[in-house]
Amino acid sequence: MTVPRILLVEDNAMNRDMLSRRLQRKGFEVATAVDGVDGLTRARADLPALILMDLSLPRMDGWEAIRQLKADATTRAIPVIALTAHAMSTDRDRAFAAGCDDFDTKPVELERLLGKIAALLGGGGAPVTDRGAPT
Questions:
Q1: Residue 116 domain-assigned?
Q2: pLDDT tens digits, residue range 88-114?
Q3: Structural domain tally of the chain?
Q4: Is 134's pLDDT higher than 90?
Q5: Does the residue 111 lie in any domain?
Q6: Stretch among 53-67, 92-106, 112-126 having the lowest mean pLDDT
Q7: Overall pTM surpassing 0.85 (yes/no)
Q8: Which residues have a Cβ under 8 Å from the Cβ of 121 and sit 6 or more positions away?
Q9: What is the largest CA-CA distance in the chain?
Q10: Taking residues 66-70, what's their average pLDDT?
Q11: Residues 7, 41: contact at Cβ < 8 Å?
Q12: Does residue 125 carry a pLDDT above 80?
């Protein structure tokens, strides 16, 4: 079974480290990027199974990075979940308008996020427990 690779685009080092370690313990391979420009470069080079994109990023915000990913035939089909501390309905609407496939708020509630990841990966990315057994 192939381990799904997730690209986590997050500028906050503590959030990036914590979420990437939690996803790795659930059986995912995680690549990281620190801003929208780096995220675009990594997405085009690595072609991950899914992208978790913070929306408030330096150099290029998440909304613009998502628009560019969805405009590029190479990366268009990669599902993107927007992550943000802003929980306003306008932020959610703006993320979907940019091309996001789903939206989640920070602080991240891991089980909720894992459910969204599994749904977008078609069940093939079903999370596993810390011991590697399916949940």
A1: yes
A2: 778 888 889 999 999 999 899 999 999
A3: 1
A4: no
A5: yes
A6: 112-126
A7: yes
A8: 4, 49, 50, 79
A9: 40
A10: 96
A11: no
A12: no
N-terminal to C-terminal alpha carbon distance within the chain: 16
Residue 95 has which token pair?
């993320």
Report the candidate in 49, 55, 96 with the shortest Cα–Cα distance to residue 75: 49
Contacting residues for 112 by C-beta, under 8 A, at least 6 apart: 104
Q: Which two tokens stand for residue 125?
A: 């990315």
Is residue 59 in a domain? Answer: yes
Q: Determine the structural domain holding residue 93 and report its residue range.
A: 5-120
- The token pair at 80 is 């993107």
- Residue 64 carries which side chain, given as an amino acid letter? E
69 belongs to a structural domain: yes
Sheet of 50-54: strand order equals 29-33, 5-9, 50-54, 80-84, 102-105
Place of tokens 């989640």: 104
Give residue 90's pLDDT.
83
The whole-angstrom separation of Cα 135 and Cα 42 is 30
- In this structure, what CATH number is given to the domain that contains residue 19? 3.40.50.2300
pLDDT of residue 128: 42
Q: Among all chains, which residue has been given the structure tokens 């035939």?
A: 73
Residue that is written with structure tokens 């503590």 in the block: 14
Q: Is the pLDDT of residue 11 over 60?
A: yes
